[in-house]
């Protein structure tokens, strides 16, 4: 990026009150062809308007990112085929952004998306004859790119058609996703089979005396506030990195030992030898800078390995875990060395609700929470499974200021294999955004409130218990010492759905590792007075949820459901 454009962008970011480093983290290069766009828009987006529209520049950069993605995707031949006759081609589209420099931020985004209607339809395989409402892209300009990434991930996957149909019904003006997933009275053959699958799930739950009306339309919203600070749990972050390396080592050893894999395993062995002595593990060298060169080498080796070799999804996701945790470590070390961590008291307010699956943004919930169920993550197909299957749901913690989910759990209904009448709500995994997971006070409070919320949900709908699968990685400590372990074998309620009409699939087709586990933490009500002494509680209320908050995510990847 040229100095003149960098200074211009820096001025815009400063005026908007945004963090410059974070702003440029995922956008560190602007092609020269967009300089005129930025320079023209500078005349319109004055300081006063920046204050009124603080998200304008995020939206503008997403527009430019979209254009750049299209530029890389399109050849002259494919461009002619992609853009409908009479609609602007790529060059005209870029030029129109310069010409329309008098538009307000919101008008610019709307104009941009109107010009891309034909592109959206073709790249997302949307039927030409249907009336679609694509206004969601006006408020969430990055959503198109994320959906495109998800579609690439699912290319030739058995769930590709389900993903396409979900988007179609999300955008249709005469129907919605719930019609596709639950209506038995529809002409779409795939939708009818999915609806029958979900009807069986509800029938099984009713037989087990689960209140399905409450289970699928849970109205309760739990609000809470606390005072915390910006301290960092160095040990937990180092432990997450150490666990990533252990998991990678275990997964790579059985692989065919290519030179690259051998080199990576050797690097992991050297790291582990520096922090272990007998059975004792000293994690301090991981976060005090002693092993930074070795950790950077592993990061670089993984980048090459993930891009050049055919690997299992498990190797990919643990490799991505390590890279994200190492990135978090470097960022926090940099902040600490520059004294950006002030350890000042901060008041934060949150609320917990079930995630509404009847919304297009469901496909980017992994972006909000920073995990590999994100559209370009190693297990995005699991997000499609969670949307389509009625036995799977999510509870999420919203940051009230951001109006974004920052913590959540991946839930599903299961029953006791030895006593099918016993139905449980099971947490397959917990997720937390990196900035929240690295703060021990905030992390523990969010997780506790979320666990209590889901525990109450399980009790009110009539489930036997709330079970929690032990956590094997990530920034959230395990629940050892907080809940008792219970030995039990479970199976998912309703079985498993395949969009292929003649295919019978088993539990391996779903991303639910907890189905292979026979030991779970058993949730039990705790004394509400028992709270973390380092947190000052302002309020905790239960209320009826009447809203469906939607917000564009800050894209990042951190931990991942197992």
Label this structure with key terms.
alpha+beta; Aminopeptidase; 24 helices; disordered N terminus; disordered C terminus
Q: Under CATH, the topology of the largest domain is which?
A: Aminopeptidase
Structural class: alpha+beta
What is the CATH superfamily of the largest domain?
Gcn5-related N-acetyltransferase (GNAT)
C-alpha termini separation:
39 Å
- What assembly state would you assign to the polypeptide chains in this entry? single chain
Helix fraction by DSSP (H/I, runs of at least 4): 40-55%
Tell me, what's the shape?
Answer: globular
Cα-based radius of gyration, to the nearest Å: 24 Å
Structural description of this entry:
With 562 residues, this protein is α+β, with helices and mostly antiparallel strands. The protein folds into 3 domains: 3-123, no CATH class; 212-230 and 347-544, Gcn5-related N-acetyltransferase (GNAT) (Aminopeptidase); 234-337, no CATH class. It is built from 24 helices and 12 strands. The chain has helices spanning 3-16, 20-25, 35-44, 47-52, 56-73, 76-82, 90-99, 105-115, 117-123, 136-139, 143-153, 160-171, 177-182, 189-207, 212-216, 234-252, 259-275, 284-287, 292-308, 313-337, 365-369, 381-388, 434-437, 440-461; strands at 220-228, 276-277, 280-281, 346-354, 392-399, 404-416, 419-432, 465-468, 484-487, 490-492, 519-522, 536-544. Strands 1, 4, 5, 6, 7, 8, 9, 10, 11 and 12 form a 10-stranded mixed beta sheet that branches. A hairpin with a 2-residue loop joins β2 (276-277) and β3 (280-281). The longest helix has 25 residues, at 313-337. The protein starts with a helix and ends in an 18-residue tail after the last strand. The relative contact order is 0.11.
């Amino acid at each position: 990026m040229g100095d003149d454009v960098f200074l211009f962008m820096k001025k815009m970011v400063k005026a908007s009150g945004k963090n410059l480093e974070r702003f440029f983290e995922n956008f560190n290069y602007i092609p020269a062809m967009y300089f005129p766009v930025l320079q023209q828009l500078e005349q319109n987006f004055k300081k006063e308007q920046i204050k009124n529209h603080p998200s304008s520049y995020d939206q503008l950069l997403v527009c430019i990112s979209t254009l750049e993605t299209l530029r890389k995707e399109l050849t002259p031949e494919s461009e002619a085929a992609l853009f409908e006759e009479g609609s602007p081609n790529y060059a005209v589209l870029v030029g129109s952004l310069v010409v329309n420099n008098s538009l307000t931020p919101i008008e610019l985004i709307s104009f941009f998306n109107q010009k891309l209607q034909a592109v959206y339809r073709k790249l997302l395989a949307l039927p030409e004859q249907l009336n679609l409402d694509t206004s969601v892209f006006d408020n969430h300009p990055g959503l198109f790119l994320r959906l495109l990434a998800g579609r690439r991930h699912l290319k030739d996957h058995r769930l590709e058609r389900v993903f396409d149909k979900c988007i179609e019904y999300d955008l249709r003006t005469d129907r919605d996703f719930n019609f596709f997933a639950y209506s038995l009275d529809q002409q779409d053959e795939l939708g009818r089979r999915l609806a029958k699958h979900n009807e069986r799930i509800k029938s099984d739950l009713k037989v087990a005396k689960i209140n399905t009306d409450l289970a699928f339309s849970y109205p309760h919203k739990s609000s809470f506030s606390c005072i915390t600070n910006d301290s960092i749990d160095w040990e937990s972050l180092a432990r997450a990195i150490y666990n990533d390396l252990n998991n990678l080592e275990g997964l790579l050893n059985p692989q065919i030992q290519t030179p690259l894999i051998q080199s990576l395993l050797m690097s992991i062995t050297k790291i582990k030898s520096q922090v272990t002595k007998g059975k004792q593990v000293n994690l301090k060298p991981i976060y005090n800078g002693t092993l930074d060169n070795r950790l950077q080498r592993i990061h670089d080796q993984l980048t090459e390995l993930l891009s050049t070799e055919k690997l299992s999804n498990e190797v990919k996701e643990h490799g991505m875990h390590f890279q994200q945790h190492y990135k978090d470590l470097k960022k926090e070390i940099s902040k600490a060395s520059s004294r950006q961590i002030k350890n000042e008291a901060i008041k934060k307010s949150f609320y917990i609700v079930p995630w509404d699956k009847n919304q297009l943004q469901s496909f980017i919930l992994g972006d909000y929470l920073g995990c590999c169920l994100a559209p370009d993550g190693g297990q995005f197909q699991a997000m499609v499974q969670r949307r389509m299957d009625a036995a799977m749901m999510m509870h999420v913690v919203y940051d009230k200021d951001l109006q974004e989910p920052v913590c959540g759990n991946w839930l599903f209904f299961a029953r006791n294999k030895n006593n099918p009448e016993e139905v449980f709500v099971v947490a397959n995994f917990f997720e937390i955004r990196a900035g929240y997971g690295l703060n021990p006070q905030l992390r523990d409070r969010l997780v506790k409130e979320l666990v209590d919320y889901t525990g109450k949900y399980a009790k009110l709908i009539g489930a036997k218990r709330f079970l929690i699968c032990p956590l094997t990685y990530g920034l959230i400590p395990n629940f050892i010492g907080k809940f008792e372990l219970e030995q039990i074998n479970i199976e998912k309620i309703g079985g498993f759905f395949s969009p292929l009409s003649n295919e019978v699939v088993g539990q391996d087709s779903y991303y639910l590792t907890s189905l292979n586990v026979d030991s779970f933490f058993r949730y039990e009500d705790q004394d509400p007075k028992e709270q973390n002494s380092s947190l000052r509680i302002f309020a905790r209320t239960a209320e009826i949820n009447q809203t469906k908050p939607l917000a564009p995510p800050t894209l990042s990847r951190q931990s991942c459901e197992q």
